[in-house]
């Protein structure tokens, strides 16, 4: 044990008689409070981890890591095989449909392809993408987009479907309404000859284009169909619904209408007049279901169709969508 006198001497570094404490004396004072050297060695050896246990933990960690890598490689290989097989299957199916069903720019062939269907939609809609062809060449992308619009219009008119709505997110087709109408008319003439269907092209909040047809140019026994085409964009979706809500709110504040007058039927009628009516079938010419801001109110009961692992406008996708619609059961919540 260390006494009080030795403790005071250690802290003050002075002897009781005033002499300074030498280093050897301080070391002797410290040794009295330190544990024995043999006990310290035994404690260190007993508390230190055993080399054998540490090696086992290292080996187990490496083993678990290898197992995880093997499982990851197996899952990745299986998933890659599945994707490749699905892609190959769809490529073969697309090729078969392309060979069996090709329009040859002949309306009779298209009518023959849809003749066996139990029913046809009266209003179809398609979603097209301006940048699906060439993201770096705006002129080429616009030209290809117009060509796709013309072909879809020709297929729709040949199938006997009277209403077509074309959605393009940016709305660039609205800026070339006259040129688009001219291109569609030329494509219809390449299908029908000198007596193409009468086409009406319109866009929300813009003046529609519907040139009158002289009855003298038609033969007596010919009744070519009439096609109504509507061009819409993302501005005709939620923005139109917001504008309609503001209009109803202003009318309610001015006491022109009451809350009981704002019904679902009224909203549906106003949206149909402002944009379009609800289509029976929506066709996506892409591998994924991406609506890209399509007006949501017009898709409550619409049948949506797309083909996996396929990109681009094709006649066989259009025909398969009509077959899918013909087989669909409209239960309407029942």
Description:
- Its cofactor is Mg(2+).
- Its main location: endoplasmic reticulum.
- Belongs to the UPP synthase family.
- The chain is an alpha/beta fold and 334 residues long.
- The protein folds into 3 domains: 4-47, no CATH class; 53-100; 107-212 and 223-237 and 275-327, Undecaprenyl pyrophosphate synthetase (3-Layer(aba) Sandwich).
- Helix content is 50%, strand content 10%.
- The chain is built from 10 helices and 6 strands; from the N terminus they run αααααβαβαββααββα.
- The chain has helices spanning 4-12, 23-33, 37-47, 51-100, 107-114, 138-158, 177-192, 238-253, 264-274, 315-327, and strands at 123-128, 163-168, 198-202, 226-232, 281-284, 303-306.
- A 6-stranded parallel β-sheet has the order 3-4-2-1-5-6, with helices on one face.
- β1 (123-128), α6 (138-158) and β2 (163-168) form a beta-alpha-beta unit.
- α5 (107-114) packs across α6 (138-158) and α6 (138-158) packs across α7.
- The chain is elongated, with a radius of gyration of 40 Å.
- The chain starts with a helix and ends in a 7-residue tail after the last helix.
How would you summarize this macromolecular structure in one to three sentences?
By secondary structure, this protein is an alpha/beta fold. It has 10 helices and 6 strands; from the N terminus they run αααααβαβαββααββα. The protein has a 6-stranded parallel sheet, with helices on one face.
